[in-house]
Inverse folding.
């Protein structure tokens, strides 16, 4: 069944603008929720600090959209040395009123382990807008100080960092490179590309996530792009003429997932933004629920059977259960 | 790795009470969100009324946790005769302050079709608490006036309704029957059980969802159970002694999915509450996004290839994309 907008009396802009309005409300809601739950998270932090392995047990119960990225070798490190995990909305902490509630910093603390020197790994994701219509989470590669021969990403993460620094040195150019594949890859980019081609993306380590970039958009560019977009919206609302930068098709493509962007051929963790959201919107708020789940699994044979049965019968539902619906089943 | 609460200084009640507090905030947030988005939904309804097949196209893009329940024969009916779909928070419409924001009514409007007489099918889910610790969405079977030989549930839905009316006639007894399998099944229950055993649950029609019950809990029982639970919480908070109705293990089991309840052997759609939430928390708020997705799929070969690639490479993420994250990618 096919019904493109051309056949209708509604323009793509009308729909996109309304979607934006929904989006703005959604963002305000996250802002309020963060303020309302702050004391509860503090209380939780205090409680769980008394529970050995709290975060390891939570991570063991992680929903599919997190679990699928944790390879056995990653799991070995996490289960043996993860000390704590935390998520903060950094822009709200900086400016409760003006900060974007969707920007998050995800922090892992580790005990001494055989793979890397770092006691803390923190990955920061900023919600950014770009003039080409992109809006989403962008980040910078986080280096991990691997112990000799223990790099779980087999050098991928290091290469990404090297390429990023190279590109960041000339952001404007980098931005252009993205959209047109005309330009030659640099030596570093070539090396990364080859490395990626020789690594099955399926088998890539969870720790490669720390190399996620998304798009090269600075805070300034983002601010300008957002202002421009808001202004166009205002004009459309006021019925004024808005000069189209490009045709709708492109605009719509830009709305799509990172996976669709040209530059993904150099993105070692294309779904890194989605994984960040799974941590921030699901594992973090529902951690108590996952922990209690872990307890239940120990409790009785019957429970165990049930869980097994569920795993067979309706995996999807189990995941959905976990997926950001903390309001469910809490008596 | 095993770490039960016994080893720690934290009691199960402390965690459960805190989880409840998170839950209360979550519920308030839904209440605020409903108020804030009401005008936007009105605007959306007006816009989409001008778009032919809007809801059919949205449903075509439905995330896995809805799509998996729609059999080809269901899809044929929906795609040919679904006129509109809507979700309302009925308790908020009745009482914005006191109503439970988690109760939802999901309404489908149909054109004339070959399977049933009904122009409207509406399924209502109430958020209820029971003394045994259950909290979740309960519902009543909705009858469908099937045309001769066109019952997509092959009689299942009718049997469920018959059993429900029988049980509802003696709610107290029914409630007891639930928890103890001592009592004999009635003739109708036997018939239903047989019918279910002869129907692979996998192949059950989407329309069997209209038979979802969950638990037999009246509004009065729910009110009483909630009041009792709140009082116990208050006491625990005040450090007073609380008489345990049962040991923690049971309590924890009660926290689990419907799938774990004794009475599921007579529930024709055990995950009916989750499907309701998928409609209310995902398809409904993100409908514009799904519609635009549908447009994009028509747009260009490139897009099409991309989508295919995604389907192969990271299904999970595609679903997560859809799963209640309307705040994502909206520039």
């Amino acid at each position: 069944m096919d019904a493109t907008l051309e056949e209708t009396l509604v323009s793509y802009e009308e729909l996109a603008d309304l979607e934006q309005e929904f989006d703005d409300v959604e963002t305000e809601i996250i802002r309020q929720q963060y303020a309302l739950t702050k004391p509860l998270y503090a209380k939780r932090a205090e409680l769980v600090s008394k529970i050995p392995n709290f975060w390891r047990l939570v991570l063991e119960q992680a929903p599919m959209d997190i679990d699928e990225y944790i390879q056995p070798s990653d799991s070995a490190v996490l289960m043996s040395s993860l000390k704590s995990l935390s998520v903060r909305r950094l822009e709200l902490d900086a400016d409760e009123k003006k900060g974007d509630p969707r920007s998050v910093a995800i922090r892992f603390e580790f005990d001494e382990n055989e793979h890397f020197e770092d006691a803390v790994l923190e990955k920061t994701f900023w919600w950014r807008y770009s003039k080409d219509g992109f809006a989403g989470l962008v980040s910078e590669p986080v280096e991990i100080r691997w112990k000799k021969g223990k790099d779980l990403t087999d050098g991928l993460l290091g290469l990404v960092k090297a390429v990023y620094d190279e590109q960041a040195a000339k952001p404007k150019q980098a931005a252009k490179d993205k959209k047109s594949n005309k330009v030659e890859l640099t030596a570093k980019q070539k090396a990364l590309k080859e490395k990626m081609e020789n690594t099955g993306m399926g088998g890539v380590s969870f720790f490669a996530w720390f190399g996620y970039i998304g798009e090269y958009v600075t805070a300034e560019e983002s601010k300008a792009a957002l202002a421009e977009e808001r202004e166009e919206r205002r004009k459309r609302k006021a019925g004024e003429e808005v000069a189209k930068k490009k045709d709708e098709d492109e605009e719509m493509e830009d709305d799509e997932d990172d996976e669709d962007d040209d530059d993904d051929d150099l993105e070692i963790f294309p779904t890194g933004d989605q994984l960040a959201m799974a941590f921030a919107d699901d594992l973090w708020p529902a951690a108590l629920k996952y922990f209690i789940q872990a307890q239940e699994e120990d409790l009785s044979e019957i429970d165990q059977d049930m869980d097994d049965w569920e795993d067979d019968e309706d995996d999807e539902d189990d995941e959905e259960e976990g997926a950001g619906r903390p309001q469910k089943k809490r008596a």
Notes: Chain A touches chain B through 101 residues (CB under 8 Å). Residues 247-262, 300-331 of chain A have pLDDT under 50 and may be disordered. Chain A has 14 helices and four strands. The beta strands of chain A are 82-88, 104-110, 120-129, 135-139.
